[in-house]
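A student in our group prepared the protein record below, which I am reviewing. What it holds is a sequence and that sequence's fold in token form. My question to you is simply how this chain folds and whether the tokens agree. Do not assume that whoever made the record got everything right. I have pasted the whole thing underneath without changing anything:
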Amino acid sequence: MKSLTKYLTFNTKKEVELINITNQIESLVAESKIKEGICLVNAMHITASVFINDEEEGLKQDFKDWLEKLAPKDVSLYRHNLGVEDNGHAHLKRTIMGREVVIAITQGKLDFGPWEQVFYGEFDGKRSKRVAVKLIGE
């Protein structure tokens, strides 16, 4: 059994960004030399997400718009914001979009369906955050 654990670091310029990280994950699969196994990719921060969807700018903007309707950035709406924090909206957005993804590795490649890509979703950016990538297999 082989395994590889690596960490990707993101320091976004904007508060909300959806970043395609598929190429970085594919590079780690190649580095691992795993032919059959699984790849776990998870955000290590409660205001960030990892999810799978289509790489299409209109869709990414639709996600941002939809999330803003569901959890608007209005500090007065969230009990979480009664103390020092002002990012209650980002916690909810992360919960909606999810913490991690698990992708099969088949014949040394990520085994995606049509159009699937891996994204890092940042909802409280402008500071350094990490994503863990763990690959396990033969």
